Amino acid sequence: MELSVYKIDGKESGKKVTLDAGVFGIEPNDHAIYLDVKQYLANQRQGTHKTKEKWEVAYSTKKIVRQKGSGGARHGSIKSPTYVGGGRAFGPQPRDYGFKLNKKLKQLARFSALSHKVKESALTLVESFNIETPKTKEIKQIVANLKVNDRKILFVLPENNNNIYLSSRNLQNIKVISVNELNTYDVLNATSLIMVDGVQDILQAQSGRK
């Protein structure tokens, strides 16, 4: 598939790029996407939830009532989960929600997500650009020029650019990442994907295709 490369003023640069079909034109594997997104979200969970069990509650261990003759049930400690303020039975404990996925499966999911964006005509290629000093209004102007200012936007850069990142940091619907940080969740979460020219070559090299 061939795409035009745009300038940051919204006009076509005259350059056209042929996207690698093995990265941007595959038959999307939705199950691979599901697994990769599930892993991404699982890794975001801290897993620090904790409740105190019976042995951790700070109360007296004195027997509450005598064993027999009270007419009620037997009770040995106020720490019991049956009492208000007692320990919780089988409560949540700290845990790691993460799980492993095969690298090739993660790559398949990422390329499937990119292929979805191409099919939806939600991918825009722009010329390499730089911002001299961090200014939010410059990023807003670029977005307006490209006519995607009413969407969730993901900028993908060939390498980290601190000024571009700082310029977009205060904008709720814009996220800037480098190609090495590209993941399936961010691609799918964005309504519009804006890639700087050169990113497609890096992705092709990562796929092992020539």
Describe the structure.
The chain is built from seven helices and six strands; from the N terminus they run ββαααβαβαβαβα. 32% of the residues lie in helices and 15% in strands. It has a six-stranded mixed β-sheet. The chain is α/β, with parallel strands linked by helices and 210 residues long. A hairpin with a 5-residue loop joins β1 and β2. It is elongated, with a radius of gyration of 27 Å. The protein has two domains: 155 residues, Ribosomal protein L4/L1 (Ribosomal Protein L4, Chain: A, 3-Layer(aba) Sandwich); 41 residues, no CATH class.
Q: What does the overall shape look like?
A: elongated
Structural domains: how many: 2
CATH topology-level name of the largest domain: Ribosomal Protein L4, Chain: A
Task: Using the 3D structure, state the CATH architecture of the largest domain.
Answer: 3-Layer(aba) Sandwich
Distance between the first and last residues' Cα: 16 Å
Number of strands: 6
Look at the structure and name the CATH superfamily of the largest domain.
Ribosomal protein L4/L1
Q: Look at the structure and give the CATH class of the largest domain.
A: Alpha Beta
List the secondary-structure elements in sequence, H or E: EEHHHEHEHEHEH
Indicate the low-confidence ranges by residue numbers: none
The strand line-up of the biggest sheet is: 2-1-3-6-4-5
Biggest sheet overview: 6 strands, mixed
Structural class: alpha/beta
Helix content: 25-40%
Compute the number of helices.
Answer: 7
> What is the overall pLDDT average?
92
Proportion of beta-strand residues: 5-15%
Q: In angstroms, what is the radius of gyration? A: 27 Å
